[in-house]
Fold:
Amino acid sequence: MRYPSRANLQPPYTVRVLIVEDDPLLQDSLTRAMRAAGYASDQAGDGEMALSLLRGGGFDLVILDLGLPKMDGLQVLREMRGAGCLAAVLILTARDGVEDRVKGLDLGADDYLTKPFSVAELEARARALLRRGQGGTPLLSCGTLAYDTVGRRATLGNEPLELSLRELSVLETLLFRQGKVVSKEQLIESLCGYSEEVSGNAIEVYVHRLRKKLEPAGVSIRTMRGLGYLLGEQ
Ligand code: CA
Structure:
């Protein structure tokens, strides 16, 4: 059994993500998030299907739920690593799944997320893993603003920037799509996680606060009437 890897990435290069999740709603959200981030994604709803897709090779990242029908996520991880598959693996675990998390990391997972998580956080972790795989640093920047996608910390110059969790999620979503218009709906989605509701008015408030905080960094968030928001250098 062989698992071809995709080394030596050269642009233009489409990142391929395999989403292994048996909850159809969550699988759907994850798929939309990965596609919105510009990645190609495939889905598997159980462990056996995941392994059979992995055998075809070519995946850069695997988002792997641990509780799966037919074959659980830890077994999938054990088999794929045992067969030399080098794709980055982000495992999804239940809040009380400390033991699973440790086992997963021991078996070669690169990072984990505890359910429930926000889409913005998932995107940040995915991007960080993909960058790590390419030997880059997980830092995003604009003007004098720098953002560490792993530690989820923003700095202006070298000073830490104080942000609420929601401001941070909005900033993260805008930064990932720097120079592109992000719709209000996308921002709402990035904040929702999977349970809370966020209104369009709330988004306007977060954007307003962010503008004030980012002004000294030479970063602007422009309102594109009827379309959304655009983050860039002033
Ligand atoms: Ca599950």
